[in-house]
Amino acid sequence: MYxxxxxxxxxxxxxxxxxxxxxxxxxxxxxxxxxxxxxLHRDRNLASGADGEEWQVHGGGFYHIQxxxxxxxxxxDGLIWHKWQSYWTWISxxxxxxxxxxxxxxxxxxxxxxxxxAVWQAVGISLASLAFGWAAYTTLCRVFVDANQSLLMxxxxxxxxxxxxxxxxxxxxxxxxxHLGAFTATIxxxxxxxxxxxxxxxxxxxLMAGRTPDSKYGKIAKQRSTHNNYLxxxxxxxxxxxxxxxxxxxxxxxxxxxxxxxxGVTIRHYFNSLHARKGDPHWTWAxxxxxxxxxxxxxxxxxxxxxxxxxxxxxALRFAQAEGFADVQDIVLGRCSMCHAAEPxxxxxxxxxxxxxxxxxxxxxxxxxxxxxxxxxxxAMPPANVSFIETxxxxxxxxxxxxxxxx
Length: 407
Known about the structure:
Elements: H1 4-39, E1 52-58, E2 61-67, H2 84-102, H3 105-109, H4 119-143, H5 149-170, H6 173-208, H7 215-240, H8 245-248, H9 253-275, H10 283-298, H11 312-321, H12 325-335, H13 361-366, H14 368-376, H15 391-405
Antiparallel strand pairs: 1-2
């Protein structure tokens, strides 16, 4: 009989792989074209009537690139459209969201301690929030299309901060961070599908009909493309955050997510300024570093604790002998071992998550740091607190770990 659980796991793997590949393609093309546009030499009188040009070398060949402010005089043959990278990144991401967070809502999406939602309610909130994101964003863009773009960015940041707080108020920490990434990525992909490509098609239609295209379509598309450029790095962070409980499972998750968007702005400002030949603003790296240190502090990450053992076995012995280990062992056996076992007792699990087993004294001591980070100072485990670990039990885990690592 075929193992359908294994087949489902491989389907999820394939979709995740597709999502990563198409995401790389989309991000790469976005970064390249923004850098190209900013670096064009516009001080040259080009016979072709182009707005700017640049020479580049790559892979042993030279490339002569020209950009037209609106469009060339005639419709070129073999025009390449950069759109499918965006479309497939969003499609594969949504399928992955459905497979992991919608079908596994009780495990990953819902945390009764945050909001005791039914599965249909949680999924409905998720879908409605993605639609709301696009509606709110595109409305702001239309209002501010001719206004100060920095003011628009401040308004958008306010929306993102609000959504950060909202998501952490209704979903588990892991799902909140992931949804904020999906919320932003939906805006980015909708920019391509709903604005950038349609505007380019209007220009192409005008060219084919012999009309002079209106420059406003290019202006609007450029605005949306620039926003995508600044949002890309935060989205990557948010999508990777579910692997790091200190990012998604603390009381300051919404604030950490908000600061991540500021880091994206400072990093992209540096590269955009460099590509546009507007100086080398090293101050952006200092600001980025300060923001990241603030994020680490908010997450209470034990960054400066000297607890590296000489070897894993020695560390395991030290943790097993530390004060409070017997109590922590009982907590782990009662709250964690039903999943982290050679033969998990939890319905639907056929193997221990990530291969981590917590059934013996040695296994628990060997995984002390992971237990401390994921079930002690953060609430990443158990997912959605399905085994109802108590606050004082988490405190016991923290006390035990600190006792074992105290100099």
